[in-house]
């Protein structure tokens, strides 16, 4: 994947510009606003579309599709989310087919398409990869941004610390450890493994609870505290191993850009009303995050 640092930096600075314009407008009024809808979703969509090299679709309709699909990951617990998820997948596939025709030749999508064509793989087979890239990038970045800003709004000391130092360098990862959006992932066991007194046999499915691991007291001192300068910080918010997050660098760049925008604004951020969450197990973040500036 030949995504260059320059391209990632440009995405970071465009996300920052977008956040600056929304946040500076909002900070001039004491009226509350929903950070998830007004900042996190448009910023995440901009970042992912620029990475893929496609035109940004309307935020509202795209976010609704992504929400339906990501909620589908919980169909084992909530069967009623399955049908809307399947309908959203069909609709997303239709849009992806259009993006294939319209993508620019600088982005990741055109690179994947060219690679597939050279390898004799049909376009339709690339739909799945494109859909995974889009969803893996969009919904997680929305969640990570909303969680980080919720933590910031409820930890005034952290806000001041970030304003007066370069703690954001390590702080981005600490926000993800403290409240990462991806709560779990499942793997199939390939050979018999013993963990403590539990034997896992070949073919068993094992769900790792990432959110819980990130608060493991054997791994992290004072795990329930937000410690912006925490180092080392071997959290699992971006997964691990060969299937760890392919977008980890971009994820950090986007979250950093959003936090910098808030910190450098002179207003004092606070929670205007309690956040609202949809019932969800796999992804955790506030679907509505009402904030205000004082
Ligand atoms: C802060 C935002 C993000 C978080 C918290 C996050 C988290 C994760 C996690 C936990 C995994 C591992 C899933 C598993 O093991 O089952 C993962 C995988 C992945 N992520 Fe991210 N991600 C973020 C942003 C992104 C972005 C921006 C992209 C790119 C557009 C991206 C692309 C991917 C892909 C393609 C995978 C699958 C890798 C594989 O299976 O080999 N992610 N991400």
Provide tags for this entry.
54% helix, three-stranded antiparallel β-sheet, two-stranded antiparallel ribbon, 294 residues, mainly alpha, binds protoporphyrin IX containing FE
Structure description:
Helix content is 54%, strand content 9%. The protein has ten helices and seven strands. The protein has a three-stranded antiparallel sheet with strand order 1-7-6. Strands 2-5 form a two-stranded antiparallel sheet. Helix 8 packs across helix 10 (248-264). It is globular and about 55 Å long. The chain binds protoporphyrin IX containing FE. The site of protoporphyrin IX containing FE has 24 residues, from helix 2, helix 6 and helix 10.
Number of helices: 10
Mean pLDDT: 94
**Radius of gyration, whole Å:** 20 Å
Q: Outline the biggest β-sheet.
A: 3 strands, antiparallel
Series of secondary-structure elements, N-terminal to C-terminal: HEHHHHHHHEEEEHHEE
Number of strands: 7
The rounded distance between the terminal residues' Cα atoms is: 44 Å
What share of the residues lie within helices?
40-55%
């Amino acid at each position: 994947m030949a995504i260059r640092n320059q391209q990632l930096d440009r995405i970071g600075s465009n996300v920052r510009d977008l956040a600056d314009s929304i946040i500076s407008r909002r900070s001039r009024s004491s009226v509350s606003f929903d950070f998830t809808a007004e900042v996190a979703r448009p910023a995440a969509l901009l970042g992912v579309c620029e990475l893929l090299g496609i035109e940004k679709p309307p935020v509202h309709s795209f976010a609704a599709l992504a929400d339906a699909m990501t909620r589908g990951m919980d169909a084992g617990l909530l069967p009623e989310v399955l049908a809307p998820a399947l309908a959203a997948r069909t609709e997303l596939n239709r849009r992806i087919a259009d993006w294939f025709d319209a993508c620019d030749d600088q982005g990741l999508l055109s690179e994947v398409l060219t690679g597939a064509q050279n390898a004799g793989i049909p376009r339709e087979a690339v739909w799945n990869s494109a859909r995974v890239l889009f969803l893996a990038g969009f919904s997680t970045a929305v969640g990570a941004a909303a969680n980080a800003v919720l933590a910031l709004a409820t930890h005034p000391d952290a806000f001041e610390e970030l304003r007066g130092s370069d703690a954001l360098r390590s702080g981005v990862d600490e926000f993800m450890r403290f409240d990462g959006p991806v709560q779990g992932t499942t793997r199939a066991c390939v050979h018999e493994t013993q963990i403590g007194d539990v034997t896992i046999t070949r073919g068993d499915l094992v769900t790792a609870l990432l959110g819980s691991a990130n608060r493991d007291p054997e791994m992290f001192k004072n795990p329930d505290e937000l410690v912006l300068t925490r180092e080392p910080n071997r959290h699992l918010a971006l997964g691990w191993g060969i299937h760890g997050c392919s977008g980890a660098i971009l994820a950090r760049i986007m979250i950093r850009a959003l936090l910098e925008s808030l910190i450098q604004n002179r207003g004092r951020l606070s929670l205007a009303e309690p956040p609202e969450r949809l019932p969800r197990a796999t992804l955790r973040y506030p679907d509505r995050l009402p904030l205000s500036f004082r």
